Amino acid sequence: MLAGTVWAQTIVGDSDGDAVSSMEELHAAYPEVSDELLVQIDVDEDGAIDEYERAAALAGGVLGG
Ligand SMILES: [Ca+2]
Ligand SMILES: [Ca+2]
User: Fold this and answer.
1) Are strands 48-49 and 21-22 parallel, antiparallel or unpaired?
2) According to the lineage, what is the superkingdom (predicted)?
3) Where are the domains of the chain?
4) CATH level 3 topology of 2-59
5) How do residues 26-63 score in pLDDT, each as one tens digit?
6) pLDDT classification of 12: cutoffs 50, 70, 90
7) Which of 10, 17, 19, 41 is the most buried (most CB within 10 A)?
């Protein structure tokens, strides 16, 4: 669990380390990402970007860096 905690804290766009990125966290990490894009990234429309949605966005080139 220690390694998992360290990993969670290193995720760009997850400043509080809870393993999901809120819209606020993503805006802070990726200020160039528009609200429309965030809606597209949030596939299950729960208002937060989980690790799968973030990975898909990164793989698809939607999120830079
Ligand atoms: Ca978070
Ligand atoms: Ca989501």
Assistant:
1) antiparallel
2) Bacteria
3) 2-59
4) Recoverin; domain 1 (1.10.238)
5) 889 889 889 899 999 999 999 999 999 999 998 998 88
6) confident
7) 41
